[in-house]
Amino acid sequence: MRGADPEVVRRALDTGSALPGTTGFAGELDGRLVRDVLGRVPLFFDGGEWSHRPTDLAEPTPLPAGHVREDDAVSRRFSLPDIEPVETASGIEAVRDAVTGAVDSIGGDDQAIAFSGGLDSAVLAARLDAPLYAVGFPGSHDIDAARSAAALLDRDLTVVTLDNQRLERALPAVVEATGRTNAMDIQIALPLFVLAQEVRADGYERLVLGQGADELFGGYAKVARAPDDPRVDADTVRGARREMIDTLPDQLERDVLALWDAGVEPVVPLLSDEVVEAALALPGEALVTARGERKWALRLAARPFLPDRIAFREKKAVQYGSLVARELDRLARESGFKRRQDDHVTAFIESTAGN
């Protein structure tokens, strides 16, 4: 069992508790395979064999998050609870307690922080004594934001500078580790992989990331626009937020596999069970204000230890903030894959991975 004490997982199975106080788990227990409700630890099976990495198996099938496989039958065992919303003030206080508790509990000198200068990674940087690493192309938004935020926090920053040759070298490894070739997945996983390689080369074995905050706290524009955004089915902000949480298992599988292949163990305190539970209890107005301000509860929860210039900063997604999406598009076009071609970047990735 990876990620949690087997006895904790055993009790969770007995009680059906989806959030038993862990940061995720997956593995074999009492002759059955089990994976936590958010899929924070990957798990695959092939007949009677199983592994945390798909590359270990001939025909890997992922065990869905929250499911158990026993006697060749797969069934759901855990589902996220439907928690009635609390008052905004008490919800923000609960989020602050959960976030600071989860982050402050991380110890050790073998870890670094993936730092982009936005709210999520700044929460980590403000409370952990660990080196900060940022990744991106020269002049990218993420590098500029990371430098300005590090200065505000009076922290040193290591910048991992990307170039197209480095992307091309890393591309086959990311495709093999994740088993994916679609453009969006690779655009997200590539900068994480390269940053993790640098962190590991500097002697750190764990990488602390702010993953999950956008999904839990309403960080997406399509959540803020619910029910008017066609990209979500829900007719409320809380419902749209739940749709985003449901995407986490697929995202986390991709990122964890890429980071493992780079040689580091990801640490994601903002996806610990206590933070998830506190986030699920937030009312819609604590996720997105009437003025359209997103991740409002997390921003207010962080104010006691973050400057407002960071706490209320907007940030681009990693594939755009690092300029990886732009440069992969450039590489694809230079290799003869034109934009008029359907999904030309994915076609380029598939051709490169096949070489």
Automatic annotation (TrEMBL):
Keywords: ATP-binding, Nucleotide-binding. GO terms for molecular function: asparagine synthase (glutamine-hydrolyzing) activity; ATP binding. The keyword ATP-binding applies. The keyword ATP-binding applies. It comes from Halovenus carboxidivorans. GO terms for biological process: asparagine biosynthetic process. Residues 112-227, 239-337 form the Asparagine synthetase domain. This is Asparagine synthetase B. It comes from the Archaea. It holds the Pfam family Asn_synthase. Gene3D superfamilies: HUPs. GO terms for cellular component: cytosol.
